[in-house]
Amino acid sequence: MSASPLSIGILVCTAGRPEMLKDCLAALIAQTCEINWKLEIGVIDNDTSQSARRNVESIAQASSVPVHYAHQPKRGIPFARNAALDLARSRGWSWIALIDDDEVASPDWLAQHIRTASEHQAQVSYGAVVQIHDAPPPVWWKVDTPSLDPEGTVLRRASTNNVLFAASLIADDGNRLRFDEDLLHGYEDLDFFERAHASGNKIVWAPKALVSERVPVSRSQPQRLINMVRSHAAAHAQIDCKRRGFPAAFMKFGLKGLRRIVAGSAISGMSWLLWKAGLPKYESRYYKGRLRLARGVGNWYGLTRVKSGYYDQIDGR
């Protein structure tokens, strides 16, 4: 990264969350930037009704940073993210940052990403996410917390919820990476960066590039958490099918899935009886059994290509 003008694009995919998007964009527009940076923002609306268009255009008119609107009518996270890559390619940005619409970036978020990538000579900088829950999650649920690894730790993959990467990953004369639109259970972002790593790109941890993620009450409800676990398990089985073929994936996830279904059903069934019999300590045991059952069912969803539907529901406003 030289002293010559540095073109950077920040991309946000959204669907039906105007209040969260507004907070997200406000923080992006207010980023601390160097004088030689050329910063732009792109919003990809994945709502068929284009519900974000009016707000984005209104924000763009008042913004000191150019804000571009694009619409991807085909619902699904991989489709929206590929539309984001298309926008990035059309704008010719040198560096591309991705953030979720339910997140708010710290004032120096982008500067920390750029610094980290430069100092560690990396093509990808992956930042930290701190979750802020509108209501406490259940005691049996393990809350995600940022890694304590030192800055510059080399990673094998990253997610799209807080990342900066060089445009060479998607350029015609580079790696030409796209998000796999078959991965509707999730994992499409991990797969993208795993392929980037396999292509020789360096991914590093950037703990000072911090964003906060708002977790609405609906996302902390027991059944919603169980559905998320099921979807993640489906994604792991599906990606294994794509990479190693169905026979190998079946030997791993088919058998593991059956064990999880049997064990999860037994644990949750017995624990439910004890919990309802007046032994409250078995409530957590019941839900942990439900999570195991969900992982087993999800494994079979991934193997048989049954849609989990988790991402069809929008949490937050």
UniProtKB/TrEMBL annotation:
Keywords in alphabetical order: Transferase
SUPFAM superfamilies linked: Nucleotide-diphospho-sugar transferases (SSF53448)
Limits of the Glycosyltransferase 2-like domain: 10-151
Molecular function (Gene Ontology), one example: transferase activity
Entries under InterPro entries matching the protein: Glyco_trans_2-like, Glycosyltransf_2, Nucleotide-diphossugar_trans
Transmembrane stretches, start-end: none
CDD domains on file: Glyco_tranf_GTA_type
Entry keyword Coiled coil: no
Entry annotated with the keyword Transferase: yes
Protein name, as recorded: Glycosyltransferase, GT2 family
Organism whose genome encodes this protein: Roseibium suaedae
